[in-house]
Specification:
heterodimer; A: mainly beta; 6-stranded mixed beta sheet; 5-stranded antiparallel beta sheet; 11 strands; globular; B: mainly beta
């Protein structure tokens, strides 16, 4: 069964600090892995997308890594800001018809001043 | 990139009443379309997906149905709402063929409360 597990479930950090969110998956055959940011009551917005051959990808202060051998990904947030407070969702797609995706439950990040 | 329009944003309905949530897509043609439901603090659950007009696949048995009357229109419906239908509903789209980068584009969501 395809699964995506994220940790921690929630995280509180002080403004300006760095943090790393984790994602482990068992989706097969692997197509791509995406990180989304979801503000409360809004739709998710894509941060990064990585395919099998990509190890790291950055989007501003967000850097995602992918280890396809161990089936792990991380999202590193540098110099956090109050606006980074949101839920971060790891999504993994298999190479199947319609490209259906498996979602993690998300990590809720709270950045405090 | 694609833009997903979803409405209404908020809906409060009595048990047993009908439901219609609408979603339209701009910026692409022949997209794959999806309806997800998100429970509080949980991941997204795929309800329906469509690869073309009139083509609907259901992922979980439920009180809801979906229709795709036009290429870029996706509708989520129910004839009689249950309390358990309450939740946050998200419409999403991907491209197809060469325009499919694997990225899901989401609408802003519709929060449904059934009383």
């Amino acid at each position: 069964k395809n699964q995506v597990e994220q940790s921690p479930q929630s995280l509180i950090i002080l403004e300006g600090k760095n943090c790393t969110l984790q994602c482990n998956y068992t989706v097969s055959p692997f197509s791509n892995l995406r990180w989304y940011k979801q503000d409360t009551g809004r739709g998710p917005v894509s941060l990064t997308i990585m395919t099998f051959s990509e190890n790291t990808k950055s989007n501003g202060r967000y850097t995602a890594t992918l280890d396809a051998d161990t089936k792990q990904s991380s999202l590193h947030i540098t110099a956090s800001q109050l606006s980074d407070s949101a839920s971060y969702i790891c999504v993994v797609s298999a190479r199947t018809n319609a490209g259906k995706s498996t979602f993690g439950d998300g990590t809720t990040l709270t950045v405090k001043p | 990139s694609q833009t997903i329009h979803q409405w209404p944003a908020t809906l409060v309905q009595p048990v047993g009443s009908p439901l219609s949530l609408e979603c339209t897509v701009e910026g692409t043609s022949n997209p794959n379309l999806y309806w997800y439901r998100q429970a509080a603090g949980r991941g997204l659950q795929l309800l329906f997906y469509s690869v073309g007009i009139g083509q609907i696949s259901s992922e979980v048995p439920q009180n809801l149905s979906a229709s795709r009357p036009q290429d870029r229109q996706f509708i989520l419906s129910s004839k009689k709402l249950l309390l358990s239908d309450s939740g946050f509903y998200l419409c999403a789209s991907t491209g197809t063929g060469k325009s499919n980068t694997g990225e899901l584009f989401f609408g802003e969501g519709s929060r449904l409360t059934v009383l």
